Write the structure tokens for this entry.
Amino acid sequence: MNGMNWKLSGFKMAMDVSNHRSFIDWGINRDRYLMFELTDEFGYNPSALTDDVNRTRTKYNVSLKLYEHDGMLVKTISKWGKLIGIGSGGFMYEQEGQLGTYFAAEGIDVFGVVNYRTDVAEIRSLSEILR
């Protein structure tokens, strides 16, 4: 629901669904980073985004990829997922229907609580993330 207040707690280290739910390997210097990428959806994934911007109605998966600090791809963490709860404080990404991962706009304390208001509750089309 748009405009909803979210309260999150019980944080843990970010997990990697592609590696049997292990922690993400941030590298020796802990300087790797994550980035989303749109990939073509060829099957039936209900969380795929519709291209309503170019009006092609093409469907895209939102994958999550891990990169070295120099931009070299390390691996795909999640081949597909659902973007949910986007707001000024951060957003959630559900990795392959299994792991909810919160991305904060600012650093958070793993023992803390985060409160934020969602602008978009569940993303279904590209125009909702290209605002």
Summary: The chain has a mean pLDDT of 85. The first strand starts at residue 5 and ends at 8. Residues 5-128 form one domain. The chain is about 0% helix and 45% strand.
